[in-house]
Amino acid sequence: MMDLLDTLIDAFFAPLWPPVLAGALIALLAFGQRWLADQPLSCSTGFANLATWLRPGAQRDRDGDWRVVFLLGIVLGGLLAALTDGAPAWQGTAAEFGRFYSALVPDSSIGSAVWWLVGGLMIGLGARLAGGCTSGHTIAGVAMGAPASIVASAVFFAVAVGSAQLAAWMLGV
Question: Is the pLDDT of residue 86 over 70?
């Protein structure tokens, strides 16, 4: 038992988290969420709940308050992962992300911030138009066998592959 515990502790502090461990934790979270709250795991709806928290006088959905806590957990979990993987991302340079990233993202801090902000807004808009985000559809929806999530996830992957191929071709990367 101690060997297993030592292996898990070593995995959390490895230079890169093993994909099997990360996938198992996500699956555990998705099924645990469904079992404990009887609601699917989702991020984009959490942003809608957060917006009602921040808007004065807005009618709050108290049943959805857990989603705001979930969003906080995503941020804190990402911070924990960055701090325990041996090399936090903010210590890296754009060149470490590859030629595609360097060709696509502006070199200045302001340009990068605007690029990521616009990208985040587009992702949020797409998530609302698709009736859920990629994690909600692909992790929770597909796991629960929801036909709409299976179709949405197939579209997400097809568009991602197509966009990456088109951008690589256009950038000559």
Answer: no
Burial of 55 (0-12, 13-18, 19+ CB in 10 A): exposed
Q: What is the pLDDT of residues 132-172, one digit of tens each?
A: 788 788 888 887 888 988 998 899 899 989 988 988 888 77
Determine the pLDDT at residue 161.
Answer: 93
Give the gyration radius of the chain's Cα atoms. Answer: 19
Q: Is 156 helix (H, G, I), strand (E, B) or coil?
A: helix
71: tokens are 């969003």
Structure tokens at 168: 């690589």
Structural contact between residues 139 and 42, judged by C-beta atoms closer than 8 angstroms? no
The distance in angstroms from the start CA to the end CA of the chain is: 48
Contact 155/126 with Cβ under 8 angstroms?
no
**pTM of model > 0.70:** no
CA distance 49 to 66: 9
**Distance between CA 89 and CA 18 in Å, rounded?**
17
How far is residue 97's CA from residue 5's CA, in Å, rounded to a whole number? 33
User: Token pair for residue 141?
Assistant: 């929806």
The one-letter amino acid at 58: A
In terms of DSSP H, where are the helices of 58-172?
65-84, 99-104, 109-129, 134, 142-143, 147-171
